[in-house]
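hiii so um. not sure if this is the right channel but i have a protein structure encoded as tokens and i wanna go backwards to a sequence. like what aa goes where. can anyone help
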């Protein structure tokens, strides 16, 4: 299986995912999906009632990849593979998305304080002759957070564009007592699994 080009499309607005792809030398072009607006999002990230966290992230990543490739065809773009990802935090079977406000961010961090939670990142690749998906699961344990530490953190902009209200690459790193899994996966793009999937799609990686 061979791709027309070595370059891929990245359908993600995350600057962290861009940095991670560059880290392993993958050339990409952004293919941004609409997240809001009068016509709504291209792919909804709403959780279906009763949907398990693993099923949720896999579905959203796959739907984004499929829609992204439809955009490639509709716009008559060069036929490259489309890579997408979706990350969520889960604890007690509950999905913690991006907090909408300070109260929600504070509640999430209070729930994570002193406990172990899971970070799930699903990646998906869609091209003319390949469709694949992998979900990476990491465990993260927070130390006990004081109300003052939570309040100070929530007063910054850090929690509000990140699942679970925190990012391992930012100031919240000081909250993390232990991780088991993939550091890059917790950031939003597990590099080992990403390279595996892109090789399967025909990208010439070492």
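sure thing!! here u go:
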């Amino acid at each position: 299986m061979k791709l027309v080009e070595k370059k891929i499309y990245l359908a993600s607005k995350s600057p962290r995912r861009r940095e991670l792809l560059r880290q392993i030398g993958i050339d990409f072009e952004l293919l941004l999906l609409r997240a809001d607006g009068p016509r709504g999002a291209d792919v909804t990230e709403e959780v279906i009632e009763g949907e398990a966290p693993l099923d949720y992230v896999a579905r959203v990543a796959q739907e984004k990849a499929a829609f992204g490739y439809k955009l490639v065809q509709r716009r008559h773009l060069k036929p490259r593979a489309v890579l997408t990802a979706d990350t969520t935090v889960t604890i007690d079977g509950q999905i913690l998305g991006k907090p909408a406000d300070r109260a929600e961010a504070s509640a999430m961090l209070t729930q994570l304080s002193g406990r172990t939670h899971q970070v799930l990142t699903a990646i998906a690749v869609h091209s003319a002759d390949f469709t694949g998906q992998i979900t990476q699961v990491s465990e993260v344990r927070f130390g006990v957070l004081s109300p003052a530490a939570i309040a100070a953190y929530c007063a910054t902009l850090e929690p509000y564009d990140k699942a679970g209200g925190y990012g391992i690459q930012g100031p919240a790193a000081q909250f993390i007592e232990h991780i088991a899994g993939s550091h890059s996966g917790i950031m939003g793009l597990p590099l080992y699994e990403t390279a595996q999937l892109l090789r399967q799609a025909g990208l010439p990686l070492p």
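oh and The mean pLDDT is 92.
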